[in-house]
Design a protein that fits this description.
175 residues; mainly beta; disordered N terminus
Length: 175
């Protein structure tokens, strides 16, 4: 079931309302994202350092022992599949990772991306993979780029009247 769910979510940003009625079918899944009001930029970025991406909304969390506080996800022992998206704007070479702050290790990393420092320099860095934790572990969704970008390096607003959705992570416990 996790593979079908991942294929569906890969191209979609989901909300709790969209998941209403199907939650019981996904007992071991957590989805967190960054939600801002319409017109709010994703935040500034300073070059050449990994930064913790904001995760301020719990869309769904049915994984026993999983929690989130100040954008830090805590997970218990197990094997997990992760799919995460991190937007970047005009940050040039960009990479994202799922970072284990408990054991200071990168668990899963995105391929390199290019968000040119020009007029249309947008990219969506995607992390996809499987990792295993031996015990309770704190995780951060992080991104780095090679060029600083003012108020919108971590995502540019669309200002459509709907909430702005920037970073998103889905974690599925598979064992």
């Amino acid at each position: 079931m996790a593979a079908n769910w991942t294929a569906f979510v890969a191209g979609n940003v989901l909300t709790a309302a969209q998941l209403n009625g199907v939650v019981d079918n996904f007992a071991d899944i957590a989805i967190f994202n960054e939600t801002q009001s319409s017109g709010t930029q994703g935040g500034g970025y300073t070059a050449s350092a990994y930064v913790k991406r904001t995760l301020n909304t719990t869309v769904l969390n049915n994984i026993a022992g999983c929690s989130i506080s100040t954008s830090v996800i805590t997970l218990g022992a197990g094997t997990y599949q992760v799919l995460a998206h991190c937007p970047a704007y005009k940050t040039t070479a960009t990479r994202s990772r799922l970072y284990d702050t408990t054991n200071t290790a990168t668990l899963v990393q995105s391929p390199n991306q290019l968000a040119e420092n020009g007029s249309n320099g947008f990219t969506l860095s995607t992390i996809s993979g499987v990792f295993t934790l031996a015990g309770s572990t704190n995780l951060e969704l992080q991104m780095r780029g090679s060029a600083s970008q003012g108020t919108n390096g971590l995502g540019a607003t669309l200002s459509t009247g709907e909430d702005e959705i920037y970073s998103q992570i889905m974690i599925v416990r598979i064992a």
